[in-house]
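Example for tutorial group B:
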């Protein structure tokens, strides 16, 4: 006997949007959402509250809790199927576009800002032309930017709404899946309770990806390796990138570095933003964000080199962790180096950083030498990318440009899924969002939630 029609694991955008859509389509259904972190108003990241170093909390306050990994992000909704996930591999481009548009309307309904950057096709065409002259590909990607403060308000509004319609459990983890005769029957929780549900949606994000991999191995559900992206966060004076950021806000630029032919891309651009430290399973890594109101004089973005490994190596996440750990070992956390020092083959020192035209926004980063950490292959590709970007935005390859390491994007191993995002081999079990390896960003994670909600409600 089922207590619930649907159980959802994880209250990141994927899980929240699944709940919103089910509530809309089947208001009479009983839905339970299980989230191991806190409610949005109780979420706390000590690093964000002024701790100099990440205290590596048992449950990472940055990644866990209502809103998931994106809660403290500045909420950039990239409104295109080309960025932030692989949903187009499961359905037609038109279907993904419709889902993105639909998810975007939910964000608006719950209080998102109206303005969308980068929609002017003429401006985009001209910038695309200039990028091409520098051998860079500019991806058309309109962005709705919420800003960190607004993003929290939107999530709080969604939580208030769902409080009225479904059961939400906070501070409780899903421990194992109950599978009988190749069909999911429910979930065992870490507080000893059992949830019996006809359908289960797993949306644990990258934070819960290891748990997901273990559960799926136990239930013989197939997984395939994803790539790992390794790189640095670049910080430079905001005017250097203004030709792009004033028109597009965020620009996605792709380059095939000549020496190794690897793809290098810009990621998560933050005009007038700040660089931040985050913690991944006890390893300090770097990220960036920007606020709607508070502005710095700098712009930051990641440069990521994608590596997809071939047989026999099967542990891309361990590879990324290893590189990030090496930076932690040398710098006691995040390393920062001026581009000029890197090219001159010397470490950056506190004095060299002080005698720059850029003040680092991440004060806890240790001046050091990234060439001791980043493999030759990725380092060469990053240097080549900076030189290409310098042709588009002169000043990018300045000796003062700051490089923070390591930025790593670990993408969970991809679950073998049907076009409905149902696991192959276990019926009524759906896996969505970043934890399933099918998305990498807020809007596609949200869209994946809507997609499975529609499927379930139509059965
Ligand atoms: C600092 C930062 C900034 C970002 N900025 C942006 C941005 O501006 N734009 C963008 O598009 N993307 C951004 N992202 C990425 C974006 O946040 C993710 O793509 C998105 O949150 C993925 O959604 P999700 O629902 O799949 O997983 P998550 O958001 O990771 O949510 C998963 C939730 O599941 C919970 N959970 C895990 N395991 C269990 C379990 N066993 N039991 C119960 N609960 C569990 C976790 O606590 C978590 O709350 C950013 C990410 C970070 C870390």
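The residue assignment follows.
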């Amino acid at each position: 006997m089922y207590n619930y029609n649907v159980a959802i694991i994880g209250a990141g955008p994927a899980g929240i949007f699944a709940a919103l859509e089910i509530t809309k389509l089947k208001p009479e259904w009983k839905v339970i959402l299980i989230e191991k972190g806190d409610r949005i108003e109780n979420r706390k990241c000590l690093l964000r509250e002024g701790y100099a170093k990440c205290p590596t909390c048992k449950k990472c306050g940055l990644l866990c809790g209502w809103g998931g990994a994106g809660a403290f992000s500045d909420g950039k909704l990239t409104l295109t199927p080309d960025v932030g996930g692989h949903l187009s591999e499961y359905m037609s481009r038109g279907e993904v576009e419709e889902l993105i548009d639909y998810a975007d309307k939910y964000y608006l309904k719950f209080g998102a800002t109206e303005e969308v950057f980068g929609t002017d096709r003429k401006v985009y065409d001209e910038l695309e032309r200039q990028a091409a002259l520098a051998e860079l590909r500019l991806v058309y990607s309109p962005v709705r930017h919420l800003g960190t403060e607004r993003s929290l308000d939107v999530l709080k509004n969604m939580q208030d709404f769902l409080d009225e319609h479904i059961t939400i459990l906070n501070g409780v983890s899903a421990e194992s899946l109950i599978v009988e005769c190749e069909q999911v029957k429910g979930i065992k929780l870490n507080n000893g309770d059992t949830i019996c549900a006809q359908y289960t949606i797993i949306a644990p994000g990258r934070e819960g990806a290891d748990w997901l991999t273990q559960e799926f191995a136990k239930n013989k559900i197939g997984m395939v390796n994803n790539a790992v992206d390794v790189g640095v966060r670049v910080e430079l004076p905001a005017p250097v990138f203004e030709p792009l950021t004033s028109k597009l806000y965020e620009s996605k630029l792709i380059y095939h570095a000549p020496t190794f032919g690897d793809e290098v891309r810009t990621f998560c651009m933050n005009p007038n933003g700040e660089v931040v430290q985050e913690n991944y399973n006890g390893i300090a890594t770097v990220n960036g964000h920007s606020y709607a109101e508070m502005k710095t004089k700098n712009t930051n973005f990641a440069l990521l080199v994608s590596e997809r490994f071939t047989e026999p190596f099967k542990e891309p996440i361990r590879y990324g962790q290893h590189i990030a750990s090496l930076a932690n070992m040398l710098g006691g956390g995040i390393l920062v180096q001026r581009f000029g020092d890197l090219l001159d083959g010397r470490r950056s020192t506190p004095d060299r950083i002080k005698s720059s035209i850029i003040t680092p926004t991440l004060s806890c980063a240790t001046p050091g030498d990234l060439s001791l950490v980043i493999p030759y292959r990725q380092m060469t590709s990053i240097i080549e990318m900076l030189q290409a970007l310098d042709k588009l935005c002169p000043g990018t390859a300045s000796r003062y440009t700051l490089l923070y390491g390591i930025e790593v994007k670990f993408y969970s191993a991809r679950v073998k899924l049907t076009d409905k995002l149902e696991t192959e081999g276990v019926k009524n079990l759906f896996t969505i969002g970043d934890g399933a390896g099918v998305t990498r960003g807020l809007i596609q994670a949200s869209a994946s939630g809507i997609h499975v909600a529609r499927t379930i409600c139509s059965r």
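The first strand starts at residue 4 and ends at 9. Compare this with the pattern of hydrophobic and polar residues in the output above.
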